[in-house]
């Protein structure tokens, strides 16, 4: 849409951000022909771009300004003072256009935590129907199904006609068998509320087209012709225009944005919806005068709504890369990365026949409880509680909502995961975490796999704040990795667990061993395999990267407990501004978060449309044909 066309209409809702959540909300609100919706997206429309469509070409998108915001953190004390690159999608579809395509599910307790923190209706039963609403699960064909273990998936718990396609794309046999031999139970469908076990998880790929299924493809493209839905790309939002007269709440009247350096204003007749993501959403609120007075004054922004919680509570999943050499007869991604001719053949295979390595997204995952990770840790519950208590004593004001006690209780449970283990058939050099596109490119000879030890519910929290009133200036990002002692403790134990998995068949038979029979660690480490907890802590600190799962900077909590939005996602101190994206998550959840972002967006759209009242789905409002609990 051109600027001229965009301004020929008036809009009830102006949505800032055409990403994962923003496009889902726009599609649902515009189902009502009497409502007009405008979407402002800073990136471009790249539908039909093969680099996005191909399920396993996402590394080609990273660190490219036409796809990626290319954010960088401040140096992290907990990770050897390293700067971490944070890939965030600057393109229509947002980060759903640039992620790994891996598709996880929060546990029942993950979401019940939200309700316990004061968010009525945002528990597992309140959100489960919306997982089903956005999903279309594609069961494997009969012939394909015979070749793979997909019995853990219960089709009755899955969506059947949603816009986002999911499938079990291929069967990696070594990983699930290794997990079973290591003592993991056979998994249940994560939709039951628990995902303990090792398995090949679903991916967001359309099996008919073998293309990435993401927000632009799933929510925008089918509805692009609606006369009441308008999209303007390459439009950088400057701020929300607020009317703050008297002592009442501020009223959003419109959104000011730039196109090619020229500033424009679009009016919002009803609401402004901020869906910029964990980084952009707090940035936009602060640029608009909503935030902590000290932050705003230092950036040269007038304070209109004083809330120091904006931009706080940043929480991310960490991933520790245990990179091990495999036997020469097992080709890994190094073969592709080092040989342009093979790369070209793989590309031609995808373009011509939709087959080959670029057609397959990563699938291997495993969720392990503390007793699986470290069965020798006696009194694990007391150990976890003591580290949480120690932190509380030295940081009494760090957690006014009481989240750490809730998370500690959860991490003690044998039904809850303290780690997500991921196996990737490629090596990594963690020294390159500042340049995400380069992490998997290394000069060590041979082929490698990564056994990634990933956090599920980190207790360390950081912040994102503006340092300038210029919207083109990136905010200061400080995830504060390993600031909480429990995070590093659990990371170290999962590192030791990763090496235990490496010595478990059938994975062990695929690894190259040294003269002494030890596994061969990637040369970037430069030391022997860690054997003690302290050695594993050093390993974790030196080999940690982000999982690209940041949450929490506009947390849904009571304001006095650190909140930015209420249970209807309305920004405190305003009448008609909502935030809808991962920044509202009050606590983290296990696994890849794109599925929960879609579910939150779907529920938020129903809230706006009046289909959820007092936290409860209105009686008779079917969600994907199912009653409110979402489970048969």
Automatic annotation (TrEMBL):
This protein's record includes keyword Calcium: no
Annotated keywords: FAD, Flavoprotein
SUPFAM superfamilies found in the cross-reference section: FAD-linked reductases, C-terminal domain (SSF54373), FAD/NAD(P)-binding domain (SSF51905)
Alphabetized GO MF terms: flavin adenine dinucleotide binding; oxidoreductase activity, acting on CH-OH group of donors
Protein name, per record: GMC oxidoreductase
Aminoacyl-tRNA synthetase listed as a keyword: no
Pfam family, one: GMC_oxred_C
Organism listed in the record: Aaosphaeria arxii CBS 175.79
InterPro entries: FAD/NAD-bd_sf, GMC_OxRdtase, GMC_OxRdtase_N, GMC_OxRtase_C
Gene3D superfamilies in UniProt: FAD/NAD(P)-binding domain (3.50.50.60), Glucose Oxidase, domain 3 (3.30.560.10)
Domain spans labelled Glucose-methanol-choline oxidoreductase N-terminal: 89-112
Cofactor dependency: FAD
Family, as annotated: Belongs to the GMC oxidoreductase family.
Positions that bind FAD: 91, 237
